Amino acid sequence: MHTNAQHQVLIVGGGTAGITVAARLRRADKRLDVAVIEPSDKHYYQPLWTLVGAGLFSKEASQRPEADYIPKGVNWYRDAVTEFLPAENSVRTRDGKAIAYDFLVVTPGIQVNWDQVKGLKEAIGKDGVCSNYSYQYVDYTWECIRNFKGGNALFTMPSTAVKCGGAPQKIMYLADDHFRSAGVRERSKIIFASANPKIFTVTKYAEALGKVLARKGIETRFRHNLVEIRADTREAVFENLDTREAVVLSYDMIHVTPPQGPPDFVRKSPLANEAGWVEVDKYTLQHVRYPNVFSLGDASSLPTSKTGSAVRDQAPVVVENLLAAMRGEPPPARYNGYTACPIPTGYGKLILAEFDYDLNPKETFPFNQAKERWSMWLLKKYGIPWMYWNRMLRGQM
Asked: Which residues are catalytic?
């Protein structure tokens, strides 16, 4: 096969993980030949979409030109990978290129599967069906919340992995706050219908969030997985995962978290495990079958929440272990599963959940982070976005 190009390190995906790794590699050694394959000319800070949906930012505030964040000296292919050929140390692209590599870092993120809920693709963005999981539709969430006059407000969580497992409930707490200030809460019913068995996986934060749910009078339907939207009758159909029965709930507005999974080109590749994720060692982030391949972020098989803060801790491990592999040495760095989930429980209040693989809290601050705090709200609204754009994507944290 004719090879169009060859690079020391090829990074597939120019989102949070790909750009952070590229920046760290270039900071470690300016002589490294690094290339990124990323089709989009826009880079999105997706954690802001919760606050866009709550009316605090315009969606444009979450978007910057991708070109501004490709590190100096890194080759950027405005293209998309269609096939991995790890036995040949190369990839094929949509534009027909064959690009070879010495080392590969796979970071294409997660795929949002709107079509896995019957009727959702046709219903989204109108008639009270909204979602923060799309740049195209995120501002419609605020329209739904702002114009809500009472009735049933549903918020869903699917049975699949999702970007930021806390996001489906964050927007619900903010909606509750807005409904109260708008004087419509007393004629509203808020229902959280989640495929999960409880509100949060870590006991400490689950207990705190349970109190928030009780205080706000939010009804929970656990083990309820959304399977269909009937837009014409404004009904949502759930499968009760314990009884396998169908449960039909009417809605006046519904915030849907769509099912998500590995990108198709990853799922069908030799790099994938049975579930379709890039199969890496959970501590070293090195591929279990191809030692010159690494992966991190949402497309990886790492058994932790898929968040930007997890990437922040994964990226230095990948870079250190990749550089060691280049020298023919064993991987020295280990990732403990750290992830963080800042959960706004209302306007001006936030619980900062931080934990590891064993679901033990791994808190940054010297106070109880399960307590709702205004200071942590300011961190989410202003501090973390600033650090993301100015430090993390520059390989400085």
From this structure: 164, 341
Position 3 confidence tier, pLDDT thresholds 50, 70, 90? confident
CB neighbourhood size of 195 (10 A): 21
Separation CA 287–CA 278 (nearest Å): 8
Cβ-contact 248, 139 below 8 angstroms: no
Q: Taking the alpha carbons of 231, 232, 233, 239 in that order, is the dihedral positive or negative?
A: negative
Kindly calculate the radius of gyration of the chain based on its CA atoms and give it in whole angstroms. Answer: 21
Residue whose pair of structure tokens reads 């314990």 in the numeric block? 242
Query: In 284-382, which ranges are continuous DSSP H helix?
Result: 308-326, 374-378
pTM of the model: 0.97
Token pair 């294409």 is found at 108
Residue 299, token pair as written in the block: 């497309």
Spatial contact of 90 and 4, defined as CB atoms under 8 Å apart: no
Cβ–Cβ under 8 Å, residues 76 and 38: yes
Q: What is the pLDDT of residue 2?
A: 73
Give CA–CA dist 5/232, Å, rounded. Answer: 52
Question: Can you list the domains of the chain with their CATH numbers?
Answer: 5-110+262-337+390-394 (3.50.50.60), 113-260 (3.50.50.60)
pLDDT, one tens digit per residue, over 173-212 is 999 999 999 999 999 999 999 999 999 999 999 999 999 9
Compute the half-sphere exposure of residue 206: CA atoms within 13 Å on the CB side of its CA. Answer: 11
What percent of the chain clears pLDDT 70, i.e. is strictly above it? 100
Beta bridge partners of 85: 90
